[in-house]
Design a protein that fits this description.
Helices cover about 35% and strands about 25% of the residues. By secondary structure, it is an alpha/beta fold. It binds NADP nicotinamide-adenine-dinucleotide phosphate.
Length: about 375
């Protein structure tokens, strides 16, 4: 296998190192905008030097972002190359385009590292769905949010202090909005639902709310009531359809989710035979993530394409009701007062997210 590697940052360098020790594949060209010199690969600055190279059969995309990653990956598929990517925004954002192009061209497209970094989550969903119907996927999918919430819970920090600490330790970016507003988790949930349920979920029907409005007072109230706040994604089969949403969630203090520390992930699927199966580990990092990119390359070598068929388009129905902790000018039914916030009566998930969109300073967390 001759590989063109696009992107030579945290993940790209890890992939380069692992592949350079293998006999069954080699990286012949690396797309990198900086001046670098590599012992056994040619560094190039124009992606066309990779997509037009007929000796290259597989492209690894490790640049991130939507553009120009989409244009480069699309060009690679059009040129007849298999693609492995770690980019969840790309695969989620252009799911239809990339899957149909790969299918039409008879090419393999894999993206295991895109969800869970070093956890073999998508590849396990692929294996699992061969034997059973999956009924639920989700969990803690974003290490940055978990780090912030964990620091607030264990150390009593306020949101700003916990975010600053996460940034100093390299767990949060200078602009953390993709993580703290739940967008990264949302991408991962949609991709997981598509693979687990064999569908194409309409992204606009999956609501998301993040953690940026949580305060130290909220967290103290949760503690006093035996709860811990985590950013949790939920994708589920319902009677006749699907539901999917990402939101802060108050789990029981003794639950497995409550115990997830630092920047770790805990992702779970539920199946008819296997029942509940959870995966715990580093959701990011150079070598864990590169490890899964190389696993995908081995799968491409053995003929494996995407994890699930190009399924029917479906909409998520968010009529399911939950009780919420809300801090803000909530005027609906309440059942308890926790000091700085109240517990609502049952509210449809979609209605609560619509209310949050109209109240940008409020904070809400579903009770589980
Ligand atoms: N890091 C993780 O632990 C992790 C885990 C799971 C998934 N991922 C995913 O993996 C992807 C890469 O992440 P990363 O952490 O490796 O990011 P990174 O360290 O920022 O590396 C990306 C590299 O791609 C380069 N690049 C960007 N645009 C380019 C272009 N047009 N031409 C050539 N090179 C270009 C960047 O160069 P400049 O710096 O010069 O812009 C940078 O060196 C992302 O999609 C991310 O979501 C990362």
């Amino acid at each position: 296998m001759n590989i063109g590697l696009m992107g030579f940052g945290v993940v790209g360098r890890g992939v380069y190192e692992i592949v350079s020790k293998r006999e069954d594949m080699r990286i012949t060209k690396v797309l990198c905008l900086e001046d670098i010199s590599l012992p056994d690969a040619q560094a190039v600055k124009d992606y066309r030097q990779i997509v037009e190279d007929e000796t290259i059969d597989t492209v690894v995309e490790a640049m991130g972002g939507l553009h120009p990653a989409y244009e480069f990956v699309r060009a690679a598929l059009e040129a007849g190359k298999h693609v492995v990517t770690s980019n969840k925004a790309l695969v989620c954002g252009f799911y239809d385009e990339l899957l149909s192009l790969a299918r039409e061209k008879g090419l393999r497209l894999r993206s295991t590292a895109a969800v869970g970094g070093g956890i073999g989550w998508l590849s396990e969903l692929e294996r699992s769905r061969r034997v059973q119907e999956l009924t639920e996927v989700g969990g803690i999918m974003n290490g940055t949010c978990n780090y912030i919430l964990d620091s607030m819970t264990r150390l009593g920090l306020d949101y700003g202090q916990a975010l600053k600490q996460a940034q100093e330790k390299g767990y949060a970016e200078a602009n953390p909005s993709t993580d703290v507003d739940g967008i990264d988790t949302w991408h991962k949930l949609i991709l997981s639902m598509n693979v687990a349920f064999g569908v194409r979920v309409d992204k606009q029907t999956v609501p998301v709310s993040g953690i940026r409005n949580i305060t130290a007072q909220d967290v103290a109230a949760f503690k006093a009531h035996g709860r811990v706040c985590k950013l949790i994604s939920t994708g589920r089969r319902t009677e006749g359809g699907f539901t999917g949403y990402v939101q802060p969630t108050l789990v029981e203090a003794g639950s497995p989710e409550a115990a997830v520390p630092l920047n770790y992930n805990l992702i779970t699927f539920l199946g008819r035979f296997s029942e509940r199966m959870s995966f715990y580990g580093q959701g990011a990092g150079r070598y864990p993530t590169a490890y899964n990119v190389v696993q995908d390359l081995v799968d491409v070598l053995s003929g494996k394409g995407f994890y699930a068929p190009y399924g029917p388009a479906v909409q998520a129905d968010n009529g399911q009701t939950l009780c919420y902790y809300v801090r803000g000018s909530w005027t609906g039914e309440t059942t308890q007062d926790w000091g700085c916030g109240v517990i609502t009566g049952p509210v449809a998930v979609g209605d609560m997210h619509a209310w949050l969109a109209d109240h940008p300073d409020a904070f809400a967390a579903g009770l589980r």
